[in-house]
Specification:
With 566 residues, the protein is mostly beta strands. It contains two helices and 45 strands. It has a five-stranded mixed sheet with strand order 37-45-44-39-42, with no helix packed on it. Strands 1-35-34-33 form a four-stranded antiparallel sheet, with no helix packed on it. A hairpin with a 2-residue loop joins β10 and β11.
Length: 566
């Protein structure tokens, strides 16, 4: 039966395997270590790279101090403030930008875990909600308008919804009065409201929303004190969708139209649950994973507000393909699925056709593609593993994925992650095995840096041959370096009846990136005779014109002295 399922899966996806593995005509980005911010193998250990104006905020370890807030501007980085002096770390995280201010959570011995903010030049605590070393532990940071909303704890209120703004921190509402707290979570801004799950003794954990002034119960999905535990709030077409349990139909898909809530469908009839998760809006539809254990198992579904539809039964039968990590990029929605024949790999759909995007690890082996957050300009990136390369970074292109670079050559992994874009460049974190976890930069290839490595004197053989050594840099993304070499006398020399500058030799050569090639220059019998008799003719200018597949070009001129042919 297992073999038959594998054959059926392969037959259903044969057309998908015809997708090319990359765009052959497109220029490959130039990928390089941005800067070794913490020299040595331990690395800078950056995380939470966050665009902030023309710069980036991040947490990093630049030396003896632990992880602290840094500002990255171009290729230079500066420590904003060592909040926990010495080797202790404040571990800043959760950067959220509102205007010219970035909020984040950090911990110090004096304040505990609290909310801080920075303008990129200095850091201040917004408010020590629990004075002294005890913590308010801000969590689920989410900006809406001019305010940052989050869950925080105080001894007086327990865990409740707070918001921070220019004036400090305010309690939005003590929803569960007293010390117990309502534990607001799954915060999501949709339209002009913040949706979240929160608890009260009267209604349990139910969906709620706020416009910043008051908190409303969206819909009491499970009436009374029992809880529906809603999550995955996602907006589409004026409705807010979420997964919840009404106590009768199990965990199913619900929606709220701004006035009332309703069950979209009981996809696993009765008290059993279909557990819809990973709700993702794409091209007027809501996509999500459903578990219909008795029929198709865990497979991708979609709805436009009506009865949900099966997108594709990727693994026929009740076993299911366990799809997840839905991410829209361009005209496609990408997601991971697992089959016996192909392992865990990357798929995509345009809403009509669903297909395997790339079997990174050929055959039954899994590449376990990992999606980072979507880049700001809509570009997609993924880390995937193959037996030959390990976990390395790929760019998602319509024609197929493109390896950015095998940063840690061979089967070991660079563990590329935290992709974030700004303009036409993309930053991410990777470990090349030499510098430790550092920031890498992928940018359009706009230059070529071929070098002439021969010394200033070049020997010429009796038969008129000479070698010019040229080096194409290893980081040349769009090699080979295509090169035209011209050797010309520096000054006019007598040749025949008049004096003029002469071209003595020409040669074309291609040099593979990371290699040194030798342009084998050939001199004619007449030019050999000239070189034998004229020291002036042996003083030459070598012009090297180089180009690459990205259309970059460069001309290098160097003066040389040719040896007397011997």
């Amino acid at each position: 039966m297992m073999k038959l399922r594998k054959l059926a899966t392969l037959a259903g996806l044969t057309f998908a395997l015809l997708i090319p593995t990359g765009s052959a005509g497109a220029a490959v980005p130039q990928v390089e270590l941005l800067k070794d911010l913490n020299p040595g193998p331990s690395g800078f250990n950056p995380y939470d790279l966050t665009p902030f104006g023309n710069s980036f905020l991040l947490s990093g370890k630049g030396g003896p101090e632990g992880n602290e807030p840094w500002l990255l501007n171009g290729s230079s980085a500066s420590l904003i403030e060592d909040l926990s002096p010495g080797s202790d770390a404040s571990e800043p995280n959760g950067f959220e930008v509102i205007g010219n201010t970035a909020y984040f959570v950090a911990s110090t011995a004096a304040t505990g875990s609290e909310l801080f903010r920075t303008d990129g030049n200095s850091v201040e605590i917004v408010e020590d909600l629990v004075p002294g070393p005890d913590s308010s532990s801000p969590y689920y940071l989410n900006p809406m308008g001019d305010f940052l909303y989050f869950q925080a704890y105080t001894p007086a209120t327990g865990n409740e919804l707070y918001r921070a703004g220019p004036g400090g921190i305010d309690l939005v509402s003590d929803l569960n009065p007293g010390v117990d707290g309502s534990y607001p979570s799954s915060l999501e801004v949709i339209g002009s409201h913040l949706y979240f799950m929160a608890y009260t003794p009267a209604s349990g954990y139910e969906p709620r929303r706020t416009d910043g002034a008051v908190i409303q119960l969206v819909h009491e999905v499970n009436p009374g004190a029992d809880s529906s535990y809603p999550n995955d709030f996602t907006g589409l077409g004026g409705n807010v969708y979420f997964s919840a349990d009404d106590g009768t139909n199990g965990y199913e898909l619900w929606k709220f139209d701004g006035v009332s809530g309703s069950l979209v469908a009981d996809l696993e009839p009765g008290a059993s649950s279909s557990y819809p998760y990973d709700l993702t809006a794409f091209n007027g539809r809501l996509y999500f994973t459903v578990d219909q254990s008795s029929t198709v198992g865990k497979e991708p579904f979609w709805t436009d507000g009506g009865m949900p539809n099966l997108l594709q039964d990727i693994v026929p039968g009740p076993e299911g393909s366990e799809p997840g990590y839905f991410r829209p990029f361009g005209n496609f929605l990408y997601f991971t699925s697992t089959t016996d024949a192909l392992g865990s790999e990357l798929y995509r759909t345009d809403g009509t056709t669903t297909a395997l995007y790339k079997d990174f690890a050929a055959g039954e082996e899994s590449s376990y593609p990992y999606f980072p957050p979507q880049a700001a300009d809509g570009r997609g990136f993924v880390s995937a593993s193959t037996s030959g390369l390990g976990y390395e970074p790929y760019e998602i292109l319509p024609a197929g994925p493109r390896l950015l670079k095998d940063i840690l050559p061979g089967p070991s992994s660079s563990e590329a992650s935290d992709f974030v874009s700004q303009g036409d460049r993309v930053l991410f974190v990777a470990d090349d095995g030499i510098h430790g976890p550092e920031i890498w930069n992928a940018r359009p290839d706009r230059e070529i840096n071929l070098r002439i490595v021969s010394r200033k004197r070049i020997g010429v053989s009796k038969r008129g041959f000479a070698g010019l050594k040229l080096s194409c840099p290893a980081d040349e993304a769009n090699g080979p370096c295509k090169t035209n070499v011209t050797v010309t006398t520096r000054k006019a020399v007598r040749f025949g009846k008049r004096k003029r500058k002469l071209t003595l030799s020409r040669k074309m050569i291609q040099v593979i990136p990371g290699n040194t090639g030798t342009a084998r220059l050939k001199f004619s019998q007449k030019n050999i005779a000239l070189l034998l008799g004229s020291p002036t003719a042996r003083k030459v200018t070598v012009v090297v014109k180089t180009s690459d597949r990205a259309g970059n070009s460069k001309t290098v001129r160097r003066s040389f002295v040719l040896g007397r042919p011997s």
